[in-house]
């Protein structure tokens, strides 16, 4: 199972992603860590990235997701993935039954407050408006409003993805021999 937590900066992708990884035993990656130095500098200066800036970054992220899928490990990626064409690149080569896009959403005022309260290496809070204008909600994704404590958001995601919540997922991770198993029953060790 691959989960892509998507949405604008400040919506809580990293916070929720790390907690989801802790609760599920899946690996976590933040797409921000894969940006080039030039892209980071551009965003820090308050300039949005172009499609040309994003192309190599998206290809790198797709390779990561395909590796997770091929190794039957699964994983959780925090990535803006604001436009459908970006999500199409991310999911190339992965069966749609094994990748889920989860749009984390929230009131603009709450997101702006979060951005103002944090220091991010390169995300300029002034880019929030352009990100909100660019955002294309996923047609086949799940929308979860992140306006409550993180545990509640994680529980909602797990319930909507797995159907039986976090307890089912935790139990599915171990078989009778104690080996860790993925949600589909394949070994993740």
Task: Label this structure with key terms.
189 residues; alpha/beta; globular; Rossmann fold; five-stranded parallel β-sheet; 12% strand
Number of H- or I-type helical stretches? 8
Q: What's the alpha carbon Rg, rounded to whole Å?
A: 16 Å
Structural class: alpha/beta
**Low-pLDDT ranges:** 164-189
CATH topology: Rossmann fold
* H and E order: EHEHHEHEHHEHH
- Gross geometry: globular
Strand content: 5-15%
For the termini, the CA-CA separation is 15 Å
Say how many strands there are: 5
CATH class: Alpha Beta
CATH superfamily: P-loop containing nucleotide triphosphate hydrolases
Main sheet characteristics: 5 strands, parallel
Residues in helix, %: 40-55%
CATH architecture: 3-Layer(aba) Sandwich
Describe the structure.
This protein is α/β, with parallel strands linked by helices and 189 residues long. The chain has one domain: 3-Layer(aba) Sandwich (Rossmann fold), CATH 3.40.50.300. It is built from eight helices and five strands. It has helices spanning 13-24, 37-44, 51-70, 84-91, 108-117, 128-134, 150-162, 165-172; strands at residues 2-6, 28-30, 75-78, 99-105, 142-145. The protein has a five-stranded parallel beta sheet with strand order 2-3-1-4-5. Helix 1 (13-24) crosses helix 7, helix 3 (51-70) packs parallel to helix 4 and helix 7 crosses helix 8. The radius of gyration is 16 Å and the shape is globular. It starts with a strand and ends in a 17-residue tail after the last helix. Mean pLDDT is 83; it is low at 164-189.
